[in-house]
Amino acid sequence: MAPDTDAEDDASFPTDYEIADAAETEHIADVVEPFGLDREDLELHGEDKAKVRLDAIEETVAEHEADGKLVLVTGMTPTPLGEGKTVTTVGLGQAFNRIGKDALVAIREPSLGPVFGVKGGAAGGGYSQVLPMEDINLHFTGDLHALTAAHNLISTMLDNHIKQGNELDVAVNWVNWPRAMDMNDRVLRETVIGLGGDVTGVPREDGFILTAASELMAVLCLADSLADLKERVARIIVAYDGDGDPITVDDIDATGAVTILLKDAIKPNVVQTIEGTPAFVHGGPFANIAHGTNSLMADRLASHLSEYLVTEAGFGSDLGAEKFMNIVCRFGEMEPDAVTLVASVRALKYHGQDMWPPELDELEDEDVAAVERGFENLDKHVRNLQQFGVPVVVAINRFPGDTDAEVQAVVDHCEEDLGVRVSESTVFSDGGAGGEDLAEKLVDAAESDSDFEYLYEADVPITEKIETIATEIYGADGVEYHGDAEEDIERLTDLGFDDMPVCMSKTFHSLSDDPSRKGAPEDWTLEVTEVYPSTGAGFLVVLTGDVLTLPGLPAEPAAAGMDIDEDGTISGLF
Amino acid sequence: MAPDTDAEDDASFPTDYEIADAAETEHIADVVEPFGLDREDLELHGEDKAKVRLDAIEETVAEHEADGKLVLVTGMTPTPLGEGKTVTTVGLGQAFNRIGKDALVAIREPSLGPVFGVKGGAAGGGYSQVLPMEDINLHFTGDLHALTAAHNLISTMLDNHIKQGNELDVAVNWVNWPRAMDMNDRVLRETVIGLGGDVTGVPREDGFILTAASELMAVLCLADSLADLKERVARIIVAYDGDGDPITVDDIDATGAVTILLKDAIKPNVVQTIEGTPAFVHGGPFANIAHGTNSLMADRLASHLSEYLVTEAGFGSDLGAEKFMNIVCRFGEMEPDAVTLVASVRALKYHGQDMWPPELDELEDEDVAAVERGFENLDKHVRNLQQFGVPVVVAINRFPGDTDAEVQAVVDHCEEDLGVRVSESTVFSDGGAGGEDLAEKLVDAAESDSDFEYLYEADVPITEKIETIATEIYGADGVEYHGDAEEDIERLTDLGFDDMPVCMSKTFHSLSDDPSRKGAPEDWTLEVTEVYPSTGAGFLVVLTGDVLTLPGLPAEPAAAGMDIDEDGTISGLF
Asked: What are the binding positions for ATP in this chain (chains A, B) (predicted)?
């Protein structure tokens, strides 16, 4: 989503679409050439989008050292206002290049589903966007479509297996592989399929999830080669048999065909920011039932190409950053050299408000006391990140309505109370120039000694992993297990899946598991309702409440206001 | 499907994959350059695939005369053996260029669904293939995926409208817009959606169709510009209200967003044949509930670029060719200059067999008498085409097992009994060289006087249109209406839709509506069961039996035998 900034509301400030439309782009081959990728290394999709060939990645990795610094962008607990994490990520990439450091950006690629629901793209905003924003928010290079097809091929093969005799004894009430669609089509959440008699198969309950929520998306983003992708696909569990033994993609003979469908999707996409910084926009897994960051393939390639890679994790430090550290860095054998925590005056005021639901209008007026009451949320996120042993720089993403006194209060708090680096950023309005100070402070931080460590070892008991995150990151007093959660853990331990990291699915609206609690909630217990394995991705998903894996459209969907004229000019998309 | 030729069974003859793999391709920009398209006119998808920009098409149309000759490829009644229509189309394009006539090829793009069912691609075969065959049979340039997304956006918007208050009074039991998937997933044919309570919407019966069966596919293939596409999308009927009045895509405010999703899919794709002939591979509508030929955009562009365009229609003369003449030529204001009717010795023997189901093994041995008994099927197809006033050339697609005596019997029959041009073609084994004689005869035919006319005027009553096709093309004695068919016709006439051409949905296995009847059945009556409007496409669909719009996978799906190695080499796809 583009941040909901005052600048956007200001009639004199151009819209994202106008800025993007006025931007001059270079041929994508010319954009990446200074970073060491030749035209032959690319598979062009038009002039401004390309995929990087797998053999080019292997060559780059073999020929160049992986000495690039990794800067992770995360945020405080998200508010409905938008804090501008993607904008900061894109702007920072531009800023690094402006201060003489070669830098690349890596962000997630958007899902088509949400585009038609609420207005706003997922390619940054203002003068810190990736281009071509229209294509990126629509079909882009087809990765999401390939994933949808691959996901549904598994479903088709499974139901066909059941219909053709069910030799594997698939338990039709224990199928764990729904169907997928990249569309916010809520009526598909719960369905009955296979009706119409013997010819069409065996009737059973089923449902659809958004493609971004498919385990295949997580697999694509964690695989480090085509061979690894295939191995991960093979071991995905799609159902259980009558004895409770797992049935995998490989058991239903779908590994090869599914991998074939993903052979291009695994190649990182490269585009450019509005200032010509190359940006990898590749993969977009959910940040609740999955790990929520762009592909390891893109990160891996970038670390061999530039001095700095700026990448983004979903939601706040409790979700995206925790998973980036404990899951992605572990699988990718990498570590962040510095972390930027994006904060905003408005988000602080939001967390400093006593009322629920919050009154967004109340946040417009200067209110330093409310900002200060919101510090407890910021502070907890800073401490969370410091637990991983990496230096933190707070980025105050300044919005036009923020007053100097409010911003100064945040700066003072960070420097004096927390003792962390802090910088005001105006990359939305000013592009890279608005992030130079932030970039300088990140260079300083990244070049200092860091002492990165995971929060837990992967081979400790499942409950210990969950409890470590609950108490040390979320601030809970402990964990309670409900429903079948304890049975799940016992079964997964028996199956030998207990040595995988855990992927927590928790509301992003609060550090706690109650979306209405702001700030840094205390005196509460995390309630775990289910634990299931994503064996292809390589983690155990821990549910702590209802997860919406297929959103719906609002009463007035953005799609209803979209148009395209006879020359192809689009309106209403952003 | 690749033709099931003896050459393929012969261990010494290379497979399609081996031939494709050994072929040297040129950069697609170099392939089209001699035909007047510049690199700037293309949107590249890698080195060997491109889309043609819409403004380049407009420029070409404005600057060059549309003086290219149009050659349509059709066939006798299909048999399980495959007659090689696509192979002949591709081979003919190559042959024309060999005899000094600039020629382009235009064929349908394959649907992903069938690829995983039965082994065999849809890009020609042998030395008459279009390349890159793998990509074309997989995601290609994403057109099918864009159509799937656009189709399902309409479904989503419709069910969201119902959930959000149903202001238009949509009758939930009279929704005519199923969901779509490009996968042979039979359990989705009949479903119940919207379960799970008030939050997810209104439960109702629904079903999925293959993307190729979506009216949007027909719309894409009949639109002659982006503006026309948008107008056609707007008028598609998705449901009826409580009063029986149609509710359109425009009524649910989806026109703009759907057209945006199709803005790239409407641009024709260009690739090359194995001998470097440019081939438009664009659009692939069903040939039963739709018209079954590639896009008008591709045909229109090609007619301004080359001396000859070779294009293909689905199934036999009774289905694809009839629709090409009566629907496509009418909408596209074009006419064929010559038609090639593809026949094979084996297909003739099949139609000359007395047994049902036919014994395919029986067709292996020389049997001139069986060939001659099969002439009645060939003859009827020749007469069908002659009714449109266009010259016919019979192409005998020779398979290695055919004997000279068998082939000669067909040649003699065509020349002496029918008085039509005939040529033996070996383009599968020999590429363009194997079709030079056929090309020469088609030049001769195309340069002769033709007197093209539609079989019926669009503004005659619906029943008259149906009866004309039934009696003059199918050879029926008349038409009987069952179920609600008469009511449908009355209602459609009242709604003012009676001036559209009709699109007949009939089995392709027979000239009659009974798939078990071979040859040229007589003494039968066509049974019409339903008539419904495809207002976006601009025709009325006439059903004469069950139509399978979502196939299933066989017990041993081709997907189960597919693999890809760590270098990306695919096996089992063809």
From this structure: 79-86
| Range list for CATH 3.30.1510.10 in chain B | 143-259
Best of B111, B156, B168, B547 to disrupt the A interface by mutation (most A CBs within 10 Å)?
A: B156
Query: C-alpha angle with apex A515: A511 to A520, nearest 5 degrees?
Result: 30
β-pair partners for A467 = none
Residue A294 token pair: 């762009």
Domain with CATH 3.10.410.10 in chain B: 462-544
Interface check A559 vs B, CB under 8 A: yes
Give the gap in angstroms from C-alpha A522 to the nearest C-alpha of chain B.
Answer: 32
CA angle B123, B125, B128 (to 5 degrees): 90
Going through A160-295 in order, the beta strands assigned E by DSSP cover 170-175, 179-181, 191-193, 204-206, 208-210, 237-241, 246-248, 269-273, 278-281
Show Cβ contacts of residue A245 under 8 Å, excluding neighbours closer than 6 positions: none
- Cβ pair A153:B253 closer than 8 A: no
Q: Where in chain B is the domain with CATH 3.40.50.300?
A: 16-141+265-446
Residue B483 phi, psi (nearest 5): 55, -130
Percent of chain B with pLDDT over 70: 97
Across chain A, what does the average pLDDT equal? 93
A164: closest CA of chain B, how far (Å) = 6
Domain B143-259 has CATH 3.20.20.450: no
CB contact under 8 A, A139 and B149: yes
B-chain residues within 8 Å CB-CB of A234?
none
> For strand A69-75 and strand A338-343, is the pairing parallel, antiparallel, or unpaired?
parallel
Residue A298 CB neighbours (<10 A)? 30
pLDDT at position A422 over 70: yes
What was the pLDDT predicted at A120? 66
Q: What is the ipTM of this complex?
A: 0.95
Interface contact B54, partner A, CB < 8 A: yes
Average pLDDT over residues A545-572: 92
CATH 3.40.50.300 fits A462-544, yes or no: no
* Contact yes or no for B346/B399 (Cβ under 8 A): yes
Contacts of B515 by beta carbon, 8 Å cutoff, 6+ apart: B507, B509
Interface residue B119 vs chain A (CB under 8 A): no
Mean pLDDT (whole number) for B84-98: 97
Q: What is the DSSP letter of B156?
A: H
For the segment A466-512, what is each residue's pLDDT rounded down to a tens digit? 999 999 999 999 999 999 999 999 999 999 999 999 999 999 999 99
Please indicate whether, in this complex, the C-beta atoms of A264 and B139 are within 8 angstroms of each other: yes
Q: How far is CA A567 from CA A46, B226, B297, in A?
A: 18, 8, 16
Give A397's strand partners: A425
Task: Give tens-digit pLDDT for B238-253.
Answer: 999 999 999 999 999 9
CATH of segment(s) B16-141+265-446: 3.40.50.300
Q: Is B148 on the interface with A (CB under 8 A)?
A: yes
**pLDDT category of residue A66 using cuts at 50, 70 and 90:** confident
A8 or B477: which leads in pLDDT:
B477
Give the range among A293-307, A353-367, B559-573 with minimum mean pLDDT.
A353-367
Q: Would you state the pLDDT for residue B11?
A: 58
The model's confidence at residue B543, banded by pLDDT at 50, 70 and 90, is very high
